[in-house]
Amino acid sequence: KYKINSILDMPCGDFLWIKEIVRNKDIDYLGIDIVDELIKNNNLKFKNEKNNFQSCDIVNFENKKKFDLVLIRDLFLHIKNSDIIKIINNLKSMNIKYVALNSYNNKKNLDVTIGQHRKVNLLIEPFNLEKPIYSFKDFEDDKFFHIYDIQTLKK
To answer: Around 14, how many Cα atoms within 13 Å sit in the side-chain half-sphere?
Structure first.
């Protein structure tokens, strides 16, 4: 339905679960992460003509290459609200069709303390994202993936 032929995964982590999604499909995949050693290992184990990995700072990442889908899973719970806003604003300037973001149903967004994590609800203050075009439950009871057409985020 959405014709996804390329994915930018931020952060890619160890490529554990996403490799099952892109395996044996004609999908160009770029995984980025701030952990250099992780990227080195991913490139050694999984790099091929379709899968590539790059080390970089996701908060300041800007990209001009076209991607059908940007996937951001389990990042926002670890970073400051101001950095989440910066990433969302960076997404608006990228050449992408869709973005998938995980979000929780908490009633208030607290800011994170360095080294800690907390649940983030992208539909309330200070983010106030619009209703997604599609949403589905992730593995936790109150955790969801929200999929947006990038044009919705640009409003």
So the answer is: 1
